[in-house]
Write a structure and sequence with these properties.
Blueprint (H helix, E strand, L loop, with lengths): L3 E6 L5 H13 L4 E5 L6 H10 L5 E9 L4 H6 L6 E6 L7 H8 L8 E2 L5 H13 L3 H32 L1
Parallel strand pairs: 1-2, 1-3, 3-4, 4-5
């Protein structure tokens, strides 16, 4: 399938947050392109990118923005690709403003939204979307989920031993 994922930031100050998405995508060996585009300062560029994204080989767009956070919505309005919004925590409102702006989309323009600063989950969700049609990605997702489950089981077993000895 070989679709790539676009990670779009409203500002380069969002890079520390979006690194989680980039790292998740690299873990699944999914090609990723990272760009800075603003829904407010460069709306024409953002809209044109979204319009051409499918033809340019993208399968999912991840959009990270703080404050008014219209980036995911403006991209979603100009593409039929899945768009995942990452509301970024800014100095004001602890990211609540970005979260509300990202999840409150009008009917017909959906944006999947992860937690405030939840970039790692955005990358995983993008992998799950692409994994629907790519067995290699799907298998990697299954292996990592199995590894996480085994780690939890090991922690529980260790806890049970520690509790038993303390009683």
């Amino acid at each position: 399938m070989n679709k790539k994922v676009a990670v779009i930031m409203g500002s380069d100050s969002d890079l520390p947050v979006v690194k989680g998405a980039i790292n998740s995508l690299k873990l699944y060996e999914i090609p990723v392109e990272v760009h800075v585009m603003s829904a407010h300062r460069t709306p024409e560029i953002a809209c044109e990118f979204a319009k051409k994204a499918r033809d340019n080989g993208f399968g999912v767009i991840i959009a990270a923005a703080g404050m008014a956070a219209h980036l995911a919505g403006i991209l979603a309005a100009h593409t039929t690709l899945p768009v995942i919004g990452i509301p970024c925590k800014a100095a004001s409102f602890d990211g609540l403003d970005a979260l509300l702006s990202t999840v409150q989309m009008p009917k017909g323009i959906p944006v999947a939204t992860v937690a405030v600063n939840g970039a790692e989950n955005a990358g995983i969700l993008a992998a799950q979307i692409l994994g629907v049609y790519d067995e290699t990605i799907s298998n990697k997702l299954s292996m990592i989920k199995e590894k996480m489950a085994n780690e939890v089981k090991e922690k529980d077993e260790k806890l049970q031993v520690e509790i038993w000895w303390k009683m």
